Amino acid sequence: MPDRYRCVLIFGAPGVGKGTQGKLLGSVPGFLHVATGDLFRGLDVASEEGRVFREYSSRGELVPDEFTLRLWRRHMRALIEHGRYNPVRQMLILDGIPRSAAQAQAMAGDIDVLQILHLVAVDEEVLLRRMQRRAEREGRHDDADERVIRNRWSVYNLETLPVLEHYGRDRRVEIDAVGSPGRVLLHVLSAVVPVHERCFGNALEG
Ligand code: AMP
Description:
Number of domains: 1
Order of helices and strands: EHEHHHEHEHHEH
CATH class: Alpha Beta
CATH architecture: 3-Layer(aba) Sandwich
Low-confidence stretches: none
CATH topology: Rossmann fold
Largest sheet: 5 strands, parallel
Radius of gyration: 17 Å
Mean pLDDT: 93
Strand content: 15-25%
Helix content: 40-55%
Bound molecules: adenosine monophosphate
Structural class: alpha/beta
Oligomer: single chain
Distance between the termini: 16 Å
């Protein structure tokens, strides 16, 4: 059993398509997609944890690190206990965490970062329209309001981009996130599959 979860991190500004790519990749045998945003949105809104999430996310802010890490670690343990994650055989696709330098430092003992996928889209107006359509479709309160979206982007630039610096350039692949999901997926797969094969072999064998 590896001492840390072997993973790929997906980075990119809110709206760039991390969730879409993470889910697509997670449907391939040998990969498991875990998104902290989904984890938080799955909390009971009437619970104390759900209330804390809503308080921060409705302003476009990050939830406090300690709270986030506690929830994420609990979720990872549950996935293993319920047989939904096998760290020996599956590459973890982490989407939305670590999202601050403090989280990256705190997670050094939890994760072995094999690769970083940085999804890049320069045109903010394209992202804005995408997010507003998603807000209507999924009823996401944090994407309905343009001011909250713009705040999410500045939080990303201020708090999350330094995480890329934390890990350095070596393991990082920049991916053009503009284009059809299938086109972006082609780029994602061509980056990740060689790393997956090197570290996990053929997940369908054995
Ligand atoms: P997302 O779906 O990844 O855009 O996340 C939605 C919201 O969940 C964010 O705006 C934050 O409020 C919260 N969130 C998700 N992941 C984290 C994290 N790693 N640290 C702190 N807050 C997070």
